[in-house]
Specification:
Chains A, B: Residues 132-159 form the PLD phosphodiesterase domain. Two copies of one chain form a homodimer. The first copy, chain A, is α/β, with parallel strands linked by helices and 197 residues long. Helix content of chain A is 38%, strand content 19%. Chain A has seven helices and seven strands, in the order H-E-H-H-E-H-E-H-E-E-E-H-E-H.
Chain lengths: 197, 197
């Protein structure tokens, strides 16, 4: 009878436990702000205050970072150019935390000055790239296989600070599923075993 | 009584008239295909068969074109680079049909070889651009103020035929509204009256 009552209570509380799926639009450029606290908080209990004069505020970059840092199991990143040190730190931090991180990028842009790809590989993160003349021009990420982050934004400081850009964040199977399938398709196709050079 | 019966009938039929909101994901590259018939059909009753050997098929490009050509009242385009002759024809066609077309683009890329921007202006379409060092890097369009088309795809032949790209199509106020507001904000900010050169 106690077990039945417990099950009934769990059932009754279910709608409250289920939070509303994320549906968010972020526009860039993001105003200059300090996101050190956000990264430090995600890194662990030791926190030192950042001495920089930039305001700590809710902005497009901090929101994007929070969404990425919410990963608990996996992060699949598929971006044309990845040179933002802040996003690089966030991704390495997740990897260090045990999140399974996979990165796909474009071969022609992965070695440009300031690219984060080398740092990601040094940290032990798996990175794969195309070997085609066409660009791997996607700019999306999938958090825990259920949150899609996609838009016009390359993961560069210029894009974040200077460009007009948009990012959609959605927890919606109808959109997440095809992007997950696209990621897996590309991940397999770009398997180093298939490289021809 | 007749009017009341009519109203009642309209009310009863309403759920059938209301179609499901569009929610679509398109991945590129799009396979080589002939989209002449699609453009000709949209242009008017006179149709001549295209002699090219390319297959006519349902593909990412034909789907994107169909969504754009569905515009009845307005088309707001906000794209970094616009050089695809096919998308250019579709946009001019809509303008010729009386659809209010507005185009926002990036000043540093609007004059590159193959740009469609000059042809759009020649056709009488209003085009505005940024005057900043940062890029106007958006790649979205809004059809009739209610369908959002957005993703990584620039409106270029290379992007359509060679790149890995994605486009989301959604009729969803929660996403369309912020993009409409972003468009209006940029449209006003890029008013030629504000140009400083």
């Amino acid at each position: 009878a106690l077990a039945a009552a417990g099950a009934l209570l769990a059932l009754a509380l279910a709608p409250w436990r289920r939070r509303r799926p994320v549906r968010e639009v972020l526009f860039f450029p993001s105003p200059p702000s300090c996101i050190e606290a956000l990264l430090a908080e995600a890194a662990g209990p030791v926190r030192t205050a950042c001495p920089c004069p930039l305001p700590r505020r809710d902005c497009a970059l901090s929101r994007l970072l929070r969404r990425l840092l919410s990963a608990r199991r996996s992060l699949d990143v598929c971006v044309f150019t990845f040179s933002s040190p802040q996003l690089g730190r966030a991704v390495r931090l997740l990897h260090g935390r045990g999140v399974r991180v996979r990165v796909v990028t474009d071969s022609q842009y992965m070695a440009v000055r300031g690219s984060q790809i080398g740092f990601l590989r040094l940290a032990g993160i798996q990175v794969r790239h195309d070997q085609e003349s066409g660009y791997m021009h996607h700019k999306f990420a999938i958090v825990d296989g259920r949150m899609l982050i996609t838009g016009s934004l390359n993961w560069t400081t210029d894009a974040i600070q200077s460009n007009r850009e948009n990012v959609l964040v959605l927890e919606d199977t109808e959109f997440v599923k095809p992007f997950l399938e696209e990621f897996e398709r590309i991940w397999e196709e770009f398997n180093p075993g298939n490289y021809k050079f």
